[in-house]
Amino acid sequence: MRVYVPLTLSGLAAAHRAGEIGPGPLTAYAVTPGLREWYVSDDIEELEYAALNRAAAASLRLIAGDPGVVRRRVVVAVDVPDGAAVADPDRSLDASSLGEVRIASSVALAEAASVHVDADDAEKDVSAAAAALGAADHGDDDAQFTVDGAEDHELLWFGIQEIPNLIG
Fold first, then answer.
1. Less packed terminus of the chain by CB within 10 Å, N or C?
2. Using the 8-state DSSP alphabet, how is residue 154 labeled?
3. pLDDT higher than threshold 70 for residue 94
C-alpha cells in the first residue's frame, strides 16, 4: 500500500540520518474508503494525488508548529505492507481526517518510492499560509485564501537518491 508521510525538511534530514521515518506511530495519508467516497473517483492516480495533497496540508501544519523550520512542505511516498496502515473507522468521513492512516512503527527510508517538496519559490506563500492557519481554522475567509495560496504550488517529485541534495 502506498502511503504519504508528511514531514518538514528538518524531519527529512533526521529520517535520512536515521535511515527511517519514525519512531512510530506515524500519521500518514492513503487512499482509504473515506477518501474514495469524498473524492468520488475510481481513478487511482487521482485518488493518490488527493492523498498526497492531504499529506501536504499536514506538512503545512508541522511547519506552522515550528517557526524554526524551512517553509517548504515535504511528503515522502512510502510503500508499506497491506494492513500496516490503518484508518480509524470512526473518523472515516470526518473532513479533517480524510485519508488519514496510522502506521504502528517506523518505516525504513529504503521503502520510500519518492519525495515531494515545494520549490524554493513557494517559501513565501507557504510561510504566509503557516502564519494564517490558525485563523483559517477558526473560519476567517481571508486567512483561508492565504492557506489556499500554498496549495497553488505543486510539490516537485524527487527520487530518494536525491535526498542529500534536498537537505544539503
1. C
2. P
3. no
Dist. CA 162–CA 50, nearest whole Å: 24
List 78's β-bridge partners, or say none: 3, 112
From CA 104, how far away is CA 151, in angstroms rounded?
A: 29
Helix (H, G, I), strand (E, B) or coil at 103: strand
**Phi/psi at 67 (nearest 5 deg)?**
-65, -15
Supply angle C-alpha 102, 8, 37, rounded to 5: 40
* 115 and 160 Cβ atoms separated by less than 8 Å: yes
Confidence of residue 165 (pLDDT cuts 50, 70, 90): very high
| H-type alpha helices, 9-67 | 9-18, 33-39, 44-64
Q: Give, in degrees to the nearest 5, the angle at Cα 148 between 147 and 152.
A: 125
